[in-house]
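Amino Acid Chain and Its Fold in Token Form
===========================================
Structure side: the spatial fold of the chain, written down as a series of whole-number tokens.
Position: the record begins directly beneath this header, with no further notes in between.
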Amino acid sequence: MILEKDYTNTFEGVHTHVKESAEKMGSSGGALYIIQNDKVVTESYFGKQSNDIHARDVKSDTQFHIASVRKAYIGFAAAYAIYNGYFSIDDSIRQFVEDSHLSAYEGVTIRHLLTHTHGLKIENGKLISEYKPGESWAYRGPSIDLLTTIIKKTTGRSVADIVNEQVFEPLAFQSTEWIKMSQPHLKIANTLRDADDIIWTETDVVDGSGMNMYVSAQELALWGYIHLTEGKWGGKQLIPREIIQMATSIQTPNPRLPIHKNGFLWFVKDTNHNFNQIGDTVPKGSYQLLGYTNVALLVIPEENVVAVRMFNRYGSPEGYDYLKDIRSFGDTVYKWSIKSTMQ
């Protein structure tokens, strides 16, 4: 299925915001892709894929390393496993791990892993409990390793296998790949080392091997779109609605705590607070993921909009307020999506 294009509203303000952010961050290039009311309403590509003198122009088929945005695919696989009865969201993880005797696992459930409320932390090479599960929030790597391991152990398939079968193949995705190291056509600017280096972290685990995820702006937007439609594609229910609803609704064990609210690894908008990554004006129920490469995927159901920005810049310059930047991106998208519906 190819979505119709309608460029009546150019989303000028969002284009300006994205290009200004890219310049401030020192990104060599980027992309913007927005879907609203089941139509592609804007797309743009600018700059180069790296700072290399022979770098390729960023184009519609350019794939970006999406870093932590890949957690949306892990969350989907977890929802798939729960929907199909492989485990339950409030199951203790001790029944799935080999070193279940460790005291750090006490009270930790699948829900805690999915909402970053598990309290697990690696300190001096050992797994410890930083706080009692459910009583606080912290963005830590151990939860992703555990989730991917539990999904593989219970379903017999990796996260990659599940999303390939359930989404990538039915939707005929061509520009979404799991890759262990950057390839010449995937070069991206890197603040720490040359882009030919292996670039993966403990959070980049699919089935025990390090894998980055490279995706084009269009296919990341379509991934967001299948969530916006709650699994519908081309007028058919491709994915059970319950899988998407689980993944994108608040699952935080104690929603009254003044912490980030999460679905299945997605950040879900609840109330405004100064460490939120979703804009203050963006309506409740919207959800988003932001990666270390400054790639962002934002879904605003109230305005029937999906917005993707793609940058190829690892981290941000010293002193740069990335939270202010990403909140401003969301607020700008929301402002222009409202303007579109009023035209």
About this structure: The chain is about 30% helix and 20% strand.
